[in-house]
Amino acid sequence: MSGRTRTADDPAPWVTDENAALLTDLYQLTMLQAYWREGMSGEAVFSLYFRTLPPARNFMLFAGLGAVLRYLERLRFHTDALDYLASLGLFCDAFLRSLETLRFRGDVWAVPEGTPVFSNAPLLEIAAPIAEAQLAESFVMNQIHVQTVLASKAARVVAAAQGRPVVDFGLRRMHGADAALKGARAYHVAGIEATSNLLAGRVFDLPVAGTMAHSYVQAHDREADAFRAFTGLYPETILLVDSYDTLAGVRRVVELARELGAAFRVRGVRLDSGDLGALAREARRILDQAGLPGVEIFASGGLDEYRVAELVQGGAPIDAFGVGTRMGVSADAPDLDLVYKLTAYAGTGRVKTSPGKELLPGRKQVFRFEQDDLAVRDVLATCDEVHPGRPLLEPVLRRGERLDAGRASLADARARAAAELARLPERLRALEPAAPPYPVVVSERLRAEQLRVRARVAGA
Amino acid sequence: MSGRTRTADDPAPWVTDENAALLTDLYQLTMLQAYWREGMSGEAVFSLYFRTLPPARNFMLFAGLGAVLRYLERLRFHTDALDYLASLGLFCDAFLRSLETLRFRGDVWAVPEGTPVFSNAPLLEIAAPIAEAQLAESFVMNQIHVQTVLASKAARVVAAAQGRPVVDFGLRRMHGADAALKGARAYHVAGIEATSNLLAGRVFDLPVAGTMAHSYVQAHDREADAFRAFTGLYPETILLVDSYDTLAGVRRVVELARELGAAFRVRGVRLDSGDLGALAREARRILDQAGLPGVEIFASGGLDEYRVAELVQGGAPIDAFGVGTRMGVSADAPDLDLVYKLTAYAGTGRVKTSPGKELLPGRKQVFRFEQDDLAVRDVLATCDEVHPGRPLLEPVLRRGERLDAGRASLADARARAAAELARLPERLRALEPAAPPYPVVVSERLRAEQLRVRARVAGA
Known about the structure:
- Two copies of one chain form a homodimer.
- With 460 residues, chain A is of the alpha/beta class.
- Chain A is 40% helix and 18% strand.
- The first copy, chain A, has helices at 26-37, 65-74, 79-87, 93-100, 130-135, 137-160, 176-190, 198-204, 214-219, 223-233, 246-260, 276-289, 305-313, 325-328, 410-422, 426-429, 444-459; strands spanning 43-50, 60-61, 107-110, 116-117, 124-129, 166-168, 194-195, 238-240, 268-271, 296-300, 320-323, 338-345, 348-349, 364-371, 374-382, 390-391, 394-398, 401-402, 440-442.
- In chain A, the strands form four sheets. A seven-stranded antiparallel beta sheet of chain A has the order 13-12-1-5-3-17-18. In chain A, strands 7-6-11-10-9-8 form a six-stranded parallel beta sheet.
- In chain A, helix 7 (176-190) links the parallel strand 6 (166-168) and strand 7 (194-195).
- In chain A, helix 11 packs parallel to helix 12.
- The longest helix of chain A is centred in the first third of the chain and has 24 residues, at 137-160.
- Chain A starts with 25 loop residues before the first helix and ends with a helix.
- The model of chain A is unreliable at 1-8 (pLDDT under 50).
- Chains A and B meet through helix 1, helix 2, helix 3, helix 6 and helix 7 of A and helix 1, helix 2, helix 3, helix 6 and helix 7 of B.
């Protein structure tokens, strides 16, 4: 099984619609073959949720549904995948033939993208023949996890910036190409203004933005030459002033303004190192004294929500932020304990009883109860209960076909996030841990059902 | 620029060889147009390195070169990308036509994959016409960053396991599809035994492994039924015993052994929750007493190098580990301050002088000096110096064509990592911060050259 004799070029090291069925854990396929052998083709219900919020989060912002629905609609094993599976020596021909025709024909309910979500409440539920629902686990989790983790981090940065635009500079240090692409999408949901990532701009029709790099300044013999040339081509650009000495760089921008007179239309300067608060103040003073109050100050370099909040609260005259790595990897909470659990099979509720990992059986609904336009609590209930408040889970696929709620656009998701975040109590929108945390309660009927199923399982 | 009128389906939300040229920051393209307008087509040297090790790392394990070489060999703007760029209203037709024919024709030197690397030492250097080298920055960083971060984390987990196999279970919570795919590759370099990720197995010819999920056990009315059915199909499988009560699960495996007699060939049991050390001891005792000393114990659930070390050092009778999320996101150090900096243009050394971000000019070489088969220090030198020790940077592409050193296989990288890690001093291979850290020194000539370039820049 070594790579010794392989060329690096075939197959291409990319995930696409064509090979996504193989982006799964081996055990999903061995279990599928077992279900098939045992004639287990009953309907399974799987529920996607997280057990606890990361310590540094008061809510998560749900994102990534689009990628999941696309996957489920297209799910199939192409020849290359079947040949690979055959090569493993674990699967019989008849089972592999059954995979050829496997399609996702189940039902899916989900919370809309851009909804703030809390622990133990289902974000998505799948009811489908067990093979279809089981197989999807790894991909569904991978895509919802990355987008939800990154959207949740970005929502905090946006909140900290208090209305100042935040631009995504994360591409170079996000975890791989897909995180950079889907992350830019998740950031858009969370209220990020624009991304530097051109492919994300292309694929998701996002606003793109950028300034200039140190290398451009360095490649010129004089900083002033770089500023003059770049401004000639892009009159309304933002000039990066910290390659050598930040305040000297700002003064060069002032000189350029004198040189160009009315033709000077530079939009701003970017500070990317040093004490950003102090430098922003000095830069503002220099620009204002030179009669350039319209030249904005853009700050970047090692920023996250805490640093942005510190700058904003400290009154630093910064007009916009570029945020890269720490938002790009969600540095303080890079993972979420998202799980995808079987809650019913063949019409019977299922649980497990591993310590700390208990689960609620059956299909469910989440009701968000609000008072005075502020969220008060979520109630987890069985899917046929009615409780006060808005039901959050809505049908998005039925028998494998996309329903209207599954067609929400990215713009819808962004608008929803803005509206829903405004309806969270202040303490949840703060960067500090909310006390008390948001209450999520289990309905009496669901709790009784859980006890009933646990008792049945204990007797088995 | 909203997504309102777009369908979710075109273009596909995946990065591939075809669209990878657009996986770059907008400013790379605006700079490229500026270079083109200014007639700046001179050779640029860019150097990829990181400034500081994360606090919890004594070395990083270099990985990801394969993806970079593939990208550089195939780099081109296809029609869709050019149409998108045209739509931004920032680029003139003549420049876009020049992009049509842009290919990477430069030279690349790199440290071999699987080499332990340290701060400030170049991992990769590119010398190419400035447009080609500038454009590549975002992609090169993205791919080297994720693989190096994940390989480095995995090397620690492998070290902690002290020879016990470690299997990658990270797919579901790694950051997106590409991180899961490339991460499995990086893990292989670092000495991970196998991955659960089938697509990674397919693409990189990696050993794949897996057991069974709780859902399979839950879908059966009795745990014993699940064990019996799965074992019937996969006699040498590993049974997951913690769905309800771990030790009761182990006893069910014992019962199955009695039932099957000589036909019982189950390889092991997997513990996935609770106090893994205590449960492993109890499980071992139960299995041994039942005359099943050959049934192995496999542990998973919330593991990282610290927890694995604790279990191993505590003498827990665990034969292999499944490690997922915390290794999958490199939870304690999800990012590295990897940078890609211009160090020469048109034959002249370049630096910047932003505080804390100084750089060393020109093309360089890194010499690793060893004594008694143990690494003693790295020396950073100009590319034409000779120092004692092994030069680490070797040419991998020349004028855009792959050289022999650029064809190293993944098996080579894995073997190299094992050999090179064995040549690190003990204190660097420990999980705790090494005191003193590994010394990286700058040669006198390189330091003099840096001072010379800084003086020139200061006068400009």
